[in-house]
Amino acid sequence: MNTLAMLIRKITFLAIFILSGFSWSVSAAPRIPDSLTQNGLIYCTSATGFSFNPQSADAGTSMNVITEQIYSKLFEIKNNSAVVTPSLAESYTLSADGKKIILHLRRGVKFHHTAWFTPSRNFNADDVVFSLNRVLGHNTSLPEFAMLENQISSTDKQRKIFHELAKKTRFPYFESIKLNQKIESVQALDPYTVQINLFMPDASILSHLASQYAIIFSQEYALQLNADDNLVQLDLLPVGTGPYQVKDYFRNQYVRLERNDNYWRKEAKIKNIIIDLSADRIGRLAKFFNGECQIAAFPDVSQLGLLKNHGEHFQTLQTEGMNLAFLAFNIKRPEMQKVEYRRAIAQAINRHRIIKDIYYQTASVANAIIPSVSWAATTGDGSQNFAYDYDPEAAKAFFKDKNLSLNIWVINEEQVFNPSPIKTAELIKFDLTNAGVKAQVRLISRNFLTEQLRNDSADYDLILSGWLAGNLDPDSFMRPILSCSSASEITNLANWCSPSFDHLLDHALTTTDTRLRAIDYNLAQKIVLSELPLLPIASVKRVLVSSTQVQGVDMTPFGNINFEKLSFRKGQKQ
């Protein structure tokens, strides 16, 4: 292609981008058209952690707005169990040695037709190979363009650098589970058959491929963007195979979704969906009461009592979540290396008061690492004894004359596992002060924390954090926050490493028998609860409120809702 032709192509593409995606750059959203609010559903949620690509979003954040609506995955989690059910993969087989997974793909699945992309073919094996290779850090599906340095202008050099950075997008979730140490290679055997080659047998792989992060992209779309040195658009203007596709997006204001009439499953009943991102927790509930949205996610739980007077119009949905809020002890700090100090700090903290004052009883005190909703959780009512529960007198006696001073860091952002981290940190500081420990709370940003960890200069003693898993498999829960391979990373903030713990995690992957796997995970959990690199605080319920005029609202432990299953009651909106 000559220079003039390339220039014309880029100008044409830019014109299309401006016409179709101009709303991406404006700072204030216009009024939502009445035709949409009267003939669609409005879902109010948080803009925190919002991304059109859950793969590149921060690990542990909620992507419930995106994954189930725009994209499809190879597998889905069935009935909140260890069983996964095929989705884009119609079926699969496992080799006798457990090191090869053969996926037989569904035929006739169409990608979205949008203002920025018109597919020329249906979903096939190339899309699976590209999507998996991308998160593995393999760029084999995208060609490189050979250019001589003396023939490249300074502008082209800058564009090439930007292009290479787009290729090197980080994928926090898959990095946290070390997926590139699990999957050796991915190859297409024919247009509808894919072989995944594993380094070692790994019983968690299918669960990871069913997580909210494991979406499938169009390789054809990626190749088109790659040819235009604009691969970054893959994460900004989404193209998937899900029940809805993006029509408009106004940053931090709203996303307009339109029904995908070529969806490979049963067509969604509601044509237009507005995802309102503009309000905080209290604001979302206010909008809900005013009829400005039919569903409100993550409402201010302190205000849920207001719904009691309107029970015939509203319903509250709660489900146990695959999450954990915790206080991590930085094992790199001299005092935090002493297990007796960690245990005494645990005894000083009134976790029951945190549940009452922060979560308003929409969470339970966590006496374990594995959330109760996981198939590997211990049987019973979940109220197992915790050896280092609140005992202020014991803590005060231990710290007498110790003259201990601690730095507590807290990331200044709301998360599913902690709606008010600053207030939580202040409650912990109060308890520690009563036990004779001097504590200073420091508010930080996630970017600051990442930089400090990268430079090995993070000087916190304690840090308030948590984890939100994308599936019910304990491997995706325990490995990122506690394994040796994740020490000194933003997921393992305790910087803890126990070979015995890691051995149990690895051994659990050698069998597909969930009962045997659960035994290993619970033995690993006992090590954690004994050595206490982190103090579990709360397992949080996922909460949303919905108008009773909406039918089919069913929330998963990950906060996901399948909009394709929603409908309005007869005589209501259509």
Automatic annotation (TrEMBL):
Keywords: Signal. It comes from the Bacteria. GO terms for biological process: peptide transport. InterPro entries: Peptide/Ni-bd, SBP_5, SBP_5_dom. GO terms for molecular function: peptide transmembrane transporter activity. GO terms for cellular component: ATP-binding cassette (ABC) transporter complex; outer membrane-bounded periplasmic space. The keyword Ligase does not apply. Pfam families: SBP_bac_5. The keyword Cell inner membrane does not apply. Residues 84-487 form the Solute-binding protein family domain. Residues 1-28 form the signal peptide. PANTHER family: ABC TRANSPORTER PERIPLASMIC-BINDING PROTEIN SAPA-RELATED, PERIPLASMIC BINDING COMPONENT OF ABC TRANSPORTER. This is Cationic peptide transport system substrate-binding protein. It comes from Mesocricetibacter intestinalis.
